[in-house]
Amino acid sequence: MALIDLGRKEIHCKIVYYGAGRCGKTTNLLYIYNAMSDNDRGKMLTIDTKGDRTLFFDLLPLNLGKISGFDIRIQLYTVPGQVMYEATRKLVLKGVDGLVFVADPLKVRQERNIESLDDLRRNIADHGLDLKEMPLVLQYNKRDLCDTPVPTLSVEELEQDLNQVYQVPGFEAIATKGPGVFETLKEISKRTVNYVANKHLFNK
Amino acid sequence: MADMILTADAVGGVKSIINDKLISENVQTVLVIDGAGNILAHCGQDTDGVDALSLAALTAANFGATSQIAKLIGENDFSLLYHKGEKANIHFARLGGEMILVSIFGDDVSLGLVRVRVDELAADINRIFEG
Ligand SMILES: Nc1nc2c(ncn2[C@@H]2O[C@H](COP(=O)(O)OP(=O)(O)O)[C@@H](O)[C@H]2O)c(=O)[nH]1
Ligand SMILES: [Mg+2]
Prior knowledge:
The structure holds two protein chains of two kinds.
Chain A: E1 3-5, E2 10-18, H1 25-35, E3 45-46, E4 49-50, E5 53-54, E6 58-67, E7 70-78, H2 86-92, E8 98-103, H3 110-126, E9 136-140, H4 155-162, E10 170-172, H5 181-202
Parallel strand pairs in A: 2-7, 2-8, 8-9, 9-10
Antiparallel strand pairs in A: 1-2, 3-6, 4-5, 6-7
Chain B: E1 4-6, H1 8-21, E2 29-33, E3 39-44, H2 52-72, E4 80-84, E5 89-94, E6 100-105, H3 111-130
Antiparallel strand pairs in B: 2-3, 2-6, 4-5, 5-6
């Protein structure tokens, strides 16, 4: 849920990066963290990782400038993707305002992507929301793997699997190196802030 | 969960009663947070050494997890949590709705006092923020 602080003129929104385990959610946040200046980013919190797996969530607070005189404060969260952390994913989605669904291009992960998006839709519904109505963008990550011999899915195939219902913008990305990371962040931030601001500030 | 809109008056009102009941008794830091991990009000010592945003996010998630634990053993919810450290202690209380009050205090403050004062505050904070 967004928080609008009229006294301090701040809008706080929560954006969650969702997707199957190992698709690159934490890598997106790390790239953003390393690329932003100290003034625009808070501390990155990573809750305990066993090996390199997110067990609870990651959190990265950002300042993204102003809209209509309000400072925009965004909190980026990731969820643990592994199937067994269902309960944790639901907790992290509490009060979410915008979503990035990160897809893995490996052919062997095709089913996992589809299941994870379905899991997202259900968990959002359990919070009384409809994914179709929410700010959402897709990210087709790890595009660098498509130039290697490993079998991967084309963007068309991923669109077919994941974006038929939602018809939202999709961004190709290589989260380890940066391409697509800020394009994804910019689009979801814009959509989320507009969504919140339209609800409360302009439509009165 | 509905979006929350805070006015300067509401925040000022909540801070003033928290200052009155807790900060004046030497409680170091008090935060009011919502279920999504947003900080609604922040009183007392500034967050030197305490990262308030991380604390709020973890508290919200921890309370969510604890609610699930409560349900597993047939309780509706645990309304408060307390952790005792060597120098600092932390007390979390649900304020009705989705809000949580976090108090951080040293050994010079008694847990009993914090409990009583938090109880006294809960209804007022609820009324001011949820109106
Ligand atoms: N080749 C390649 N590897 C990536 C990319 N993004 C993430 N990875 C790797 O994928 C693994 C899992 O990433 P991580 O961010 O931990 O996944 P998460 O489970 O979604 O948080 C790590 O070894 C990353 O380095 C990418 O764009 N290309
Ligand atoms: Mg991760």
